[in-house]
Structures are given as C-alpha cells and as structure tokens.
C-alpha cells in the first residue's frame, strides 16, 4: 500500500534504480501559494552526496511539478511531482542479486512477493523518501498559512546524546546536530564506524510550534497514533517516543502529569498530546533510527535457494541514516498535521455552519 493520509493524502511511486520517483498529493485546498524554491530547498536538505557523513550517491533531486498548480497557486486538484533518478550504479548490486542482505528488506520482499528489484533494494530503498519530502513541502506550505511550524534535528548518534536542543544551529551543521557541544563527538562516532566499514544509529527530534488545540481524531486516528504510523513507515525507524516516551512508564504520576494554569501547561511531559488530541503545547517526538544495514564487513546470509553464503557489499551508503532521516521525519510530521488540520474542521457544527451558512 503506497498511500498515506485521510483528507490530505499522498501516494508515492518509484524505485531506487528505476527511472524516476514521485508523488501525487490529493486533498490540498485551492489557493495556497506554491513556492517552488522552498520545495527545492526541502529536497536539498535531504538529498544525498553532500558531505562525508552521507552516502556518496550524487542526486540533484530536482522536483518537477506536473499538475495541480496554476500561476503559482494550488487549484484544489491533485498535485503530482516527479524526481528523476540520475546517479544509479546498478552494477554494484549484481553480486547480491540472489542473496539476502542482512538488515535489509530483501528476505521479506522475496518471500512475500516471490520477486524483487535487487538494485539498491528497489521499492524498499529509502530513495522513496525523496518523494515524501516533496509531498511534505506542500503540507508545510499549507501549515505556513496556519502559522504552524515543524522543525527537526539530531539529538543522538551512536549513544552520544545532546543535552541542549537548539534548532537554530541545525541548518549550519553537516549532521543537523541540535547540540553544538556534542556535534564533534557525534561526527567522530560516524567517521569512526565508517572507517571500520561499519555504521551507527541515531535519534531525530521533531518539534512542532504553534499547533492549535484539537488536532487528532479519536479513537482510531488519534494524533499520536497517526504520528507513530507516519514515523514507523520511514525506513530504518525502530521506535517512536511522544513527549517523555518510555520515561513516562518509569516516573510517578505526579512527576509525569503536566499541571495546568490559566496561561497553559506548566510542563510538557505529554509531548503536546492528550487523549490523542493536540493540547496547544509544542508537539515533541523522538524518532529512533537503527544503524545502516549496508556495511562493508563480511556477513553470513542465505541465497534464494536457502544455501548459506557470505555477503560482501559494494556501493555507496549513509553511515548514519538518522541524519538525512530527520528531514524525512519532519516531512511526515507536516503531512500528518495537514491531514489532521483538515479533518478537525468538521468536529463541531459551528465550523460546518461557517462554511455553509447563507
Ligand atoms: N540503508 C542502507 O543500507 N544504505 C543506505 O544508504 C541507506 N540510506 C537511507 C537513507 C535514509 C534517509 C533512510 C531513512 C534510510 C536509509 N537506509 C539505508 C535504511 C534502509 O532503507 C532500511 O534499513 C532497509 O530498507 C530495511 O528496512 P527497515 O530498516 O525499515 O526494516
């Protein structure tokens, strides 16, 4: 299934080594100004090949808008966007054609579908996330109209944790670090693993400012459930924490509750969500990425005949997928919020009357 969202929804298509990737975003209200430079800038934040902390695969990731926008304004029709692949090296994958790379989706795709595009993982490759960032940029342009801001950064790499979260320093950092004090140690951890032909994992923090009260549709489309769904759909994500997350299970109720005053909540352990509905406070979500599965150390695996073989990989890979993954997580958050903002409009009859009253 390749579609996400309810009222503001998008579908993606394309494979790592196919001709192109893209998305169709549906349910976007008419009248939103489409800033193409902003969309491209979002793509550039995620794109590979920028520095030694990312894969060397060089993609321009230029987005072409094919429909849904007229004279720079959304028309209310489906917006389709395409990104052509430019820098595939499919030969790097010939030696893994018939075997299952550990940590990858090869084993499960082959057993489920009976066939797979082995070139760079095909559809299971995170190359697809370029299309999500394009869709997410449209969502962000809608959220901008509502003055809702989504941002992200890296809070931990290989267990080296940030103690300060400074979103203003993220754009200057090659690894989108939130804490300048630990940035060098985080970079060193990535390069140390890379030099040993290994990889590291990391954690991204996604923060939402100025979210209105009321986003989220209990019971089964609770805001936290939608966010978890969105984040867990990103490649290599193994855990999602809303607010204090797992810590909430370790502290007493008094310390976990956010007490309320006239001017708002005194603390924000809940991550801005109560009962599956945004409470007007910042929404904070931590997204945990595993270590990149493609490593250049000999590993044990089986081939498609279930014969035991050695696996030796070639190709270009991110030594820490959390870094570029943080931009994808930010995009998925924007897509969830745009969807929930549109759904929330019909929560009260007063709202419906505002549209239909004569
Ligand atoms: N995995 C790799 O082996 N090499 C990569 O270069 C790579 N780049 C990624 C870039 C991003 C932005 C993200 C989010 C993930 C990347 N991954 C990479 C992770 C794999 O796509 C993913 O681990 C694999 O498809 C198996 O899926 P799973 O980890 O969700 O089970």
Automatic annotation (TrEMBL):
Reduced FMN (FMNH(2)). InterPro entries: Chorismate_synth, Chorismate_synth_AroC_sf, Chorismate_synthase_CS. NADP(+) binds at residues 46, 52. GO terms for biological process: amino acid biosynthetic process; aromatic amino acid family biosynthetic process; chorismate biosynthetic process. FMN binds at residues 123-125, 235-236, 275, 290-294, 316. Signal peptide: none annotated. Pathway: Metabolic intermediate biosynthesis; chorismate biosynthesis; chorismate from D-erythrose 4-phosphate and phosphoenolpyruvate: step 7/7. Its EC number is 4.2.3.5. One of its GO terms (cellular component) is cytosol. Keywords: Amino-acid biosynthesis, Aromatic amino acid biosynthesis, FAD, Flavoprotein, FMN, Lyase, NADP. Its cofactor is FMNH2. GO terms for molecular function: chorismate synthase activity; FMN binding. It catalyses: 5-O-(1-carboxyvinyl)-3-phosphoshikimate = chorismate + phosphate. Homotetramer. This reaction introduces a second double bond into the aromatic ring system. HAMAP family: Chorismate_synth. This is Chorismate synthase. It comes from Poseidonibacter parvus.
């Amino acid at each position: 299934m390749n579609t996400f969202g309810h009222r503001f929804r998008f579908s993606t298509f394309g494979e790592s080594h196919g001709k192109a990737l893209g998305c169709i975003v549906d349910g976007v209200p008419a009248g939103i100004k489409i800033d193409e430079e902003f969309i491209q800038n979002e793509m550039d934040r995620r794109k590979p090949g920028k520095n030694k902390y990312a894969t060397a695969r060089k993609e321009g990731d230029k987005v072409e808008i094919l429909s849904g926008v007229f004279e720079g304004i959304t028309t209310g029709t489906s917006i389709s966007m395409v990104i052509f692949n430019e820098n595939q090296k499919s030969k790097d994958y010939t030696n893994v054609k018939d075997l299952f790379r550990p940590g990858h989706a090869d084993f499960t795709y082959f057993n489920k579908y009976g066939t797979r595009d082995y070139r760079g993982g095909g559809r299971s490759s995170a190359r697809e996330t370029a299309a999500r960032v394009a869709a997410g940029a449209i969502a962000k342009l809608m959220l901008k109209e509502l003055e809702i801001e989504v941002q992200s950064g890296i809070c931990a790499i290989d267990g080296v944790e940030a103690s300060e979260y400074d979103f203003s320093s993220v754009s200057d950092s090659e690894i989108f670090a939130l804490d300048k004090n630990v940035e060098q140690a985080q970079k060193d951890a990535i390069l140390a693993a890379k030099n040993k032909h290994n990889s590291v994992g990391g954690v991204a923090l996604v923060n939402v400012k100025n979210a209105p009260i009321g986003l989220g549709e209990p019971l089964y489309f609770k805001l936290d459930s939608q966010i978890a769904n969105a984040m867990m759909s990103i490649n290599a994500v193994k855990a999602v924490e809303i607010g204090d997350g797992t810590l909430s299970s370790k502290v007493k109720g008094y310390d976990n509750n956010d007490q309320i005053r006239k001017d708002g909540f005194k603390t924000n352990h809940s991550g801005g969500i109560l009962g599956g509905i945004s409470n007007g406070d910042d929404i904070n979500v931590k997204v945990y990425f595993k270590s990149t599965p493609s490593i250049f150390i000999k590993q044990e695996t089986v081939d498609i005949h279930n014969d035991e073989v050695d696996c030796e990989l070639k190709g270009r890979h991110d030594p820490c997928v959390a870094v570029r993954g943080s931009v994808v997580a930010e995009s998925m958050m924007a897509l969830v919020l745009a969807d929930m903002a549109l759904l929330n409009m019909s929560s009260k009859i007063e709202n419906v009357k505002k549209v239909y009253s004569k």
